[in-house]
Amino acid sequence: MITRTTQSGFASLMTYNIQKISSQLQDVTVQASTGARIGAPSSAPEDQGLLIRLRAALSDQQTYQDNAESGMSLMDVVDDAFASANTALDRTLELVVQGASETYSSDDRAALAEELQSIRDQLVSVSNTDFAGRYVFAGTAYDAPAFDADGNYQGNSDIPTIRVGEDRYEDSGFDGGAVFSDAFSLLDDIEAALLSDDTDALAQLTADTSAVLSDVSLARGRAGTGFNRFDDARALSENMELAVTTRITEFAGIDETEVYTRLSELQTAYQAALQITSAGMDVSMFDFI
After folding, report:
1. Positive or negative CA dihedral for 234, 238, 239, 245?
2. What is the distance between the alpha carbons of residues 116 and 51, in angstroms, rounded to a whole number?
3. At what angle do helices 45-100 and 176-195 cross, to 10 degrees?
4. Strand partners, 162
5. Which residues contact 54 (CB under 8 A, 6 or more apart)?
6. Is the dihedral of CA 278, 279, 284, 286 positive or negative?
7. Which one-letter DSSP state was computed for residue 5?
8. Is 284 in contact with 7 (CB distance < 8 Å)?
9. What is the pTM of this model?
10. What are the structural domains of the chain?
11. What proportion of the chain, given as a percentage, has pLDDT over 90?
12. Which of 190, 167, 9 shows the shortest CA–CA distance to 110?
């Protein structure tokens, strides 16, 4: 027995085929235009979750790089501050040595004390160095200056950090009290000795000044180490970003030759389906004339 396809059955079958080809054509056209194998959530829905996680990981690595680069810039600023502090303390040591000399008069020492006050002002400015609106020597209390005009510490001993990896944080500030408080106390002692013509005290303060200079130099070394750690974190994040980008490309990218070949095949099939549908409808209508 031969089953004859009715006009309505034929039309339904061809409409289904055209819609199916049209949907496939739309997906492949999007792939060809975007270079992505996965487009809307309805396209390969089982892959969407992984792709979302990969893109989130890529965004995280870019954030870590930005943070690491910010940390490197911060440590550059800190290094400059320490360099200025060293210069000020070097001059302080010269003043102490001069003041301890018996050849200096009271007036000479008074002049040295006056210059020492300028050095104090310079050190206050250095200890209140800021980066992007944060006072780098104030601990986590970085929204306000670390020291007042008299050299009293106003920050805290907690150290702020920056996230530069999934489980990696690096120090992004200093406890200025531990770095500069001894220096301000030293300046007070030197000024008092100069104004009182106490050469014995000044001789002792020579060693104390050298010790403070050494402490500041050690702190500057920590800034250099911090810079290197941020640089290492940046390089690691760049490598991770490349790995994730490669994974996304492999997972969601397209083979251009394959996609354009498929696009051509679907366009041909779509036109053929339209022609067959048109011809079929013409024949069916002729049969009823």
Report:
1. positive
2. 63
3. 10
4. 170
5. 244, 247, 248, 251
6. positive
7. P
8. yes
9. 0.72
10. 53-247 (1.20.1330.10)
11. 63
12. 190
End-to-end CA distance of the chain: 26
For 30, the enclosing helix (H) or strand (E) is helix 7-34
Q: Which SS3 state, helix, strand or coil, does residue 46 take?
A: helix
Q: What is the DSSP letter of 146?
A: S
Q: What CA dihedral angle connects 238, 244, 247 and 252, to 10 degrees?
A: -120
pLDDT in tens, 21-36: 777 667 657 655 655 5
Would you state the pLDDT for residue 271? 81
Asked if residues 53 and 204 have their Cβ atoms less than 8 Å apart, the reply is: no
Q: Which two tokens stand for residue 128?
A: 């209140």
CA 182 to chain centre: 34
In this prediction, residue 8 has a pLDDT band, given cuts at 50, 70 and 90, of: low
Residue 8 vs residue 273, higher pLDDT: 273
Q: How far is residue 49 CA from its own chain's centroid?
A: 26
Tokens at 198, concatenated: 């106490």
Instruction: Kindly give, in sequence order, each residue whose CB lies less than 8 Å from that of residue 40, ignoring residues fewer than 6 positions away.
Output: 30
pLDDT at 103 over 80: yes
Segment 218-233 mean pLDDT: 97
Tokens of 9: 């059955």
Residue 52, Cβ neighbours under 10 Å: how many?
A: 11
Element containing residue 130 per DSSP (H, E): strand 130-131
Please give the Cα distance from 66 to 69 (Å, whole number). 5
The dihedral of CA 143, 149, 153, 159: what is its sign? positive
Tokens of 200: 């014995």
91 vs 116: CA distance, rounded Å: 9
Residues near 159 by beta carbon (within 8 Å), at least 6 away in sequence: 139, 140, 171, 172, 173, 174, 175
